[in-house]
Amino acid sequence: MKFRGKIIDPHCMKQFYSIVIILSKLCRNVVMRLSSTKLYLIASNESNSNQISVWSVLDQQSFFKDYDMIGETEFNEILFSLPIDMLASSLSSAKQTNLKTIKMKLTDKLSPCLTIELDLESQVSSKQLCTHDIPVSVILPKDWSAYKEPTIPVHNISVVMPPIRAVRCIVDKMKRIGPWLMVSLDSSGKMVLGVSNLSATVETHFIGLDIVSVKNSIDKENKYSTVVDMKKFSQFVNCETLNLSRILCHVVEGMLLHCSIEEDEYVLHYFLSGIDK
Fold first, then answer.
1. Burial letters for 151-168: b for 16+ Cβ neighbours within 10 Å, e otherwise?
2. Distance between CA 134 and CA 189 in Å, rounded?
3. Could you give the percent of the chain with pLDDT greater than 70?
4. What is the mean pLDDT of the chain?
5. By the 8 A CB rule, do 175 and 228 touch?
6. Which of 12, 92, 183, 187 has the smallest number of CB atoms closer than 10 Å to its CB?
7. Lowest mean pLDDT: which of 33-42, 101-110, 237-246?
8. Strand stretches in 111-255, DSSP E
9. CB of 87 within 8 A of CB of 20?
10. Can you tell me the distance from the alpha carbon of 64 to that of 13, in angstroms, rounded to the nearest whole number?
11. Given this model, what pLDDT does residue 236 score?
12. Residue 169 φ/ψ, nearest 5 degrees
């Protein structure tokens, strides 16, 4: 089992850091799944380990200048879990303009580690190397089935989310009112965010959103809703690195709110199960 990779493109380094920061806001641990063509970052639902809450896929050829791995079994893959906050902290230098490369490799330092090496330009010397060792727990092949690609139900409706700063502002105020958020989308391109308590019901309407897809689109009155955990949705929209992203919002009536970022080099899916209220 071996893995070594190097990112040198400044844009890719910032993208990788942004993805890690998003995950660090949503979970405590992630599973990194390595294959010959893809790098996956996966988080399970903390209240139900059989459900995946975050599924992100990076194309290794787009991100990595060098990528060398030898995996296990005929699938040639490596899976291990690690604390995402330690990975985010180790990559914090990706925000700096003097970062030249990010190197990652699996090492054995008394216990398995993912070693992060940051090569920075320095005014004092020609090279400054920062090294971080992140402890990992290798996942045995018999447990890999828990981290396969999740089956996504057919969405009733999908739209482009309003500007994330506006959504963030509204949700930050709504979470003081109640613990559950109602999200409704309709085929006219309207999103309604609502919250209720014993004394009040508050709604915010966003109109004119771009429709990506809708079931039974002949009927223009179609409206689909689901209720989700306010805190978990707030954690997602409060990721600062989302500010420049085009985010899609998908609803499966009463069952699921699914937010996704779909770029050429990577995709990131965030799943929030519907709550029966």
1. eeeebbbbbebbebeebb
2. 45
3. 94
4. 91
5. no
6. 92
7. 237-246
8. 111-120, 128-135, 137-138, 157-160, 180-186, 190-196, 201-206, 211-214, 223-229, 247-252
9. yes
10. 9
11. 95
12. -60, -45
| 156 closest CA partner among 216, 218, 215 | 215
Do 264 and 167 touch, CB atoms closer than 8 A?
no
End-to-end CA distance of the chain: 47
Torsions phi, psi for 63 (to 5 deg): -95, -40
Q: Which residues contact 242 (CB under 8 A, 6 or more apart)?
A: 22, 164, 236, 261
For the cut 90, the answer to whether the pLDDT of residue 166 exceeds it is yes
Burial of 8 (0-12, 13-18, 19+ CB in 10 A): middle
Question: Residues with Cβ < 8 Å from 118, sequence gap 6 or more?
Answer: 90, 91, 93, 94, 99, 101, 102, 103, 129, 130, 131, 132
Residues with Cβ within 8 Å of 142's Cβ and at least 6 positions away in sequence, in order, are none
Q: CB atoms < 10 A from the CB of 47, how many?
A: 10
How far is it, in rounded angstroms, from Cα 50 to Cα 138? 18
Q: What is the predicted pLDDT for the residue at 28?
A: 92
pLDDT at 264 over 80: yes
Q: Which helix (H) or strand (E) holds 165?
A: helix 164-174
Query: Strand pairing partners for 104?
Result: 5, 116
pLDDT at residue 146 in the model: 92
Per-residue pLDDT of 65-97, as tens digits, reads 999 999 988 899 999 999 999 999 999 877 777
Total Cβ atoms within 10 A of residue 93: 19
Question: Which two structure tokens, joined as six digits, stand for 182?
Answer: 């109602």
How many whole angstroms separate alpha carbon 135 and alpha carbon 133? Answer: 6
Residue 198 neighbours by CB under 8 Å, 6+ apart:
none
